[in-house]
Design brief:
The protein is α+β, with helices and mostly antiparallel strands. It has one domain (about 5-270): Double-stranded beta-helix, CATH 3.60.130. It is built from five helices and 16 strands. The strands form four sheets. Strands 1, 2, 3, 4, 5, 6, 14 and 16 form an eight-stranded mixed sheet that branches. Strands 13-7-15 form a three-stranded antiparallel sheet. Strand 2, helix 1 and strand 3 (about 45-50) form a beta-alpha-beta unit. The longest helix has 15 residues, at about 210-225. It starts with 6 loop residues before the first strand and ends in a 6-residue tail after the last strand. Bound molecules: succinic acid (SIN). Succinic acid binds near residues 86, 97, 114, 116 and 266.
Length: about 280
């Protein structure tokens, strides 16, 4: 098929853009995919609305970014194990991803991109927040940038993570070993520096320091990284699809829709060693 004329509209000053003019159920030609990929690099997170896609079609789109990552503890769908369901039922208390985080930082090569597709959404609530980690770095003082350069974080899989009871998890698998990453990460495609961090359940401490020594430094970084002016907020509708770049974006699922069911399909794309 021929290339599409894409409409790319930013949704906030810091990051995030909605893309119109494309039907993700169709295979994408290379020119269109390159435009979408460019939009992801420029905006950190991109959104599509009114998509009607099957798990196989979502997987085919995700594969344009690279090989697919299989979560060590969350079971995928029957027939499409690369796609897993994030489900929170009417009476579930917890949700997956309810803290600011960067996906799969507990692995040596954390996932590059995450793709989330809305199957069922509450009438209100259940939005997702995103934060621009380049801005979190750019707005530090020169003194702070110099102090943080060279620091590394220790990241663990959180076996006690709070998730909705309805999620298909397999915690019998052994947790992956701790992974170290630079606190200031250089994006391997854009060359820009970003503050690379997750909540305290994943990013445990700074390498070579105790928990107590690390806590004030990491706590301040977390607070700074999610200042409102570094964020955008996405209101999901059935058929919305988001793709975000975990190398430069944190996110948080807002748990404010008790009494309603929310069902999402998630796929993640393998990343590379961090530097
Ligand atoms: C996640 O952290 O991947 C879940 C985000 C969401 O459900 O909005």
């Amino acid at each position: 098929m021929g290339s599409n004329a894409l409409e790319i509209k930013p949704i906030a000053g810091a990051l995030g853009a909605e893309i119109g003019g494309v039907d993700l159920a169709d295979p994408l030609d290379d020119v269109t995919f390159q435009q979408i990929h460019r939009a992801l690099l420029d905006n950190g997170v991109i959104f599509f609305r009114d998509q009607r896609i099957t798990p196989d079609q979502q997987l085919a789109f995700a594969k344009r970014w690279g090989d697919i990552h299989l979560h060590p503890h969350i079971q995928g769908l029957d027939g499409t194990p690369e796609v897993f369901e994030i489900v929170k039922k009417e009476d579930d208390v917890h949700t997956l991803g309810g803290e600011w985080h960067t996906d799969q930082m507990f692995t040596a090569t954390p996932v590059r991109a995450t793709m989330l597709y809305a199957k069922q959404v509450p009438p209100q609530g259940g939005d997702t927040l995103f934060a621009n980690a380049y801005l979190a770095y750019d707005t530090l003082s020169d003194g702070m940038k110099a102090m943080l350069a060279g620091l590394r974080t220790v990241n663990s899989y959180n076996m006690k993570k709070k998730r909705a009871a309805a999620m298909q998890v397999n915690d019998a698998n052994e947790a992956p070993p701790d992974a170290e990453h630079p606190l200031i990460r250089t994006h391997n495609e854009t060359g820009r520096k970003a503050l690379y961090i997750s909540y305290e359940g994943i990013t445990k401490r700074l390498a070579g320091m105790t928990d107590a020594e690390s806590a004030p430094l990491l706590g301040y970084r977390r607070q700074h990284a999610t200042r409102p002016e570094f964020t955008c907020r996405f209101r999901w509708e059935e058929g919305s699809l988001a793709v975000w770049d975990n190398r430069c974006v944190q996110h948080l699922a807002i748990n404010d829709y008790h009494g309603y069911r929310r069902v999402m399909h998630r796929v993640t794309v393998n990343g590379e060693p961090t530097s």
